[in-house]
Design the sequence.
């Protein structure tokens, strides 16, 4: 694998005492660079709760429609790290991140529109067999599009901006969620208008990426001419090396992320069906009164979703305020967020029943683990890598963030497969509340594991090392 070195431009570095010092980007520019996370989140938030319903709309059975959702976790597990490895070593004049983002955007347009127009291209009896594999391809393209966004901001942000910038990403995601739920409320049953909605969402992604490209200026990487040419397996080898050389904190965070996202997936992918099919006892594939009940349930779901996005926005601001203005350890912020999700999952499974108001309250609070999972773990990884980079060590920020995201996909896959198995044994409206028991158990374990994270700030670690060194020095002198 060739060694790539950053070649700074005049806009990106200044000379100080004969050394290149990176320019510190203003926060407003970094926020604009994070803008595509908003539009990607709109895409995920729209596709997630509507994918199984759309497959049922095309004629697929409930259990198989749920099982088809493993497309996202499986493709994300493999695509994210490989794309991250390619992005980390890319030597394009445009930089490392932007060429990958552009490729992902174009591919998402193609796959997304083909998926959404399956009913228009083929008879409904055949559309299912086209839409199902296209859904898998679309998940690959979205993962290509989203993987470099955090890394681009991490590349250009200073060390003291790393953790706040990850919370900015959560801020963008909360606005994206609010916008997605608003878009879903345009039509009573969104899956009946998949083409129009997907067209608008792809256009929004194009606008946000365009703004990002106008602001971002990357340092192109120049390959070392003395290094050997990369093999086709180089990205895979990079993934293996990154896993092997990662700090222990990354492994701990990975386990926590996996458990947290078993719970998050229950809400993000299946809460829409829970409202429509279980709480309101409707059916999107039926006609007459049953379909009206489903439409009422989905309206309650989109209302709860907007409330959920609002709480995510407020909680993201609260988290960044705590991280910046207090000495409170990240784990003591993250753990209560996870426990809150576990509590409402238990209530959703055992208490809510057909109470729409109670269901709305539970769904709104369920966002707390997600807010913490996107802010704190990624921020810790970004800070560790920024410090290593300043020490002259080789880092793979995009790759490590992609590896952390892999653990999110593992949690998603576990949740989806468990629910699919339950649905094969009982009706959809009976099976959906059961998955919230699984979510609660996973998040209780995750919250407990979070309390044991080694998240000491670097100043404490350095001071402890210095004190230890001084003790040894004084002992030597006394001897």
Sequence:
């Amino acid at each position: 694998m060739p060694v790539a070195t950053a070649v700074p431009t005049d806009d990106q570095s200044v000379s100080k005492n004969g050394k290149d010092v990176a320019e510190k980007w203003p926060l407003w520019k970094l926020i604009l660079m994070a803008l595509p996370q908003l539009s990607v989140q709109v895409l995920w938030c729209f596709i997630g709760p509507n994918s199984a319903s759309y497959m049922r709309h095309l004629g697929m059975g409930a259990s198989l429609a749920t099982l088809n959702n493993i497309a996202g976790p499986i493709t994300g597990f493999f695509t994210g790290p490989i794309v991250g490895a390619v992005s980390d070593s890319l030597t394009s004049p445009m930089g490392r991140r932007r060429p990958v983002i552009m490729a992902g955007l174009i591919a998402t347009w193609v796959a997304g529109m083909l998926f959404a127009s399956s009913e228009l291209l083929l008879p409904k009896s055949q559309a299912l067999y086209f839409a199902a594999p296209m859904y898998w391809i679309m998940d690959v393209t979205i993962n290509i599009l989203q993987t470099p966004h955090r890394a681009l901001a991490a590349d250009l942000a200073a060390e003291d901006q790393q953790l706040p910038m990850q919370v900015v990403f959560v801020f963008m995601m909360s606005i994206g969620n609010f916008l997605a739920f608003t878009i879903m409320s345009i039509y009573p049953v969104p899956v009946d208008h998949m083409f129009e909605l997907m067209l608008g969402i792809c256009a929004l992604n194009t606008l946000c990426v365009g703004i990002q490209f106008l602001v971002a200026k990357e340092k192109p990487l120049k390959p070392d001419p003395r290094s050997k040419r990369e093999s086709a397996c180089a990205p895979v080898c990079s993934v293996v090396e990154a896993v092997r050389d990662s700090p222990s904190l990354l492994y701990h965070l990975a386990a926590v992320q996996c458990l947290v996202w078993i719970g998050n997936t229950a809400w993000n992918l299946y809460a829409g069906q829970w409202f429509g099919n279980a709480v309101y006892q409707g059916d999107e594939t039926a006609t007459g009164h049953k379909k009206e009940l489903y439409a009422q349930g989905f309206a309650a779901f989109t209302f709860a979703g907007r409330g959920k996005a609002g709480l995510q926005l407020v909680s993201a601001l609260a988290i960044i305020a705590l991280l910046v203005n207090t000495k409170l350890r990240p784990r003591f912020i993250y753990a209560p967020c996870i426990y809150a999700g576990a509590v409402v999952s238990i209530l959703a499974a055992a208490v809510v029943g057909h109470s729409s108001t109670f269901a709305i309250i539970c769904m709104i609070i369920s966002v707390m683990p997600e807010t913490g999972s996107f802010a704190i773990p990624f921020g810790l990884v970004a800070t560790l890598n920024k410090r290593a980079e300043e020490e002259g060590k080789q880092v793979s920020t995009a790759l490590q963030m992609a590896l952390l995201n892999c653990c999110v996909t593992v949690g998603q896959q576990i949740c989806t497969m468990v629910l699919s198995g339950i649905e094969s044994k009982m009706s959809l409206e009976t099976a959906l509340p059961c998955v919230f028991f699984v979510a609660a158990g996973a998040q209780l374990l995750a919250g407990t594991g979070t309390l044991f994270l080694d998240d000491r700030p670097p100043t404490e670690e350095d001071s402890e090392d210095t004190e230890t060194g001084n003790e040894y020095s004084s002992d030597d002198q006394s001897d």
About this structure: The radius of gyration is 23 Å.
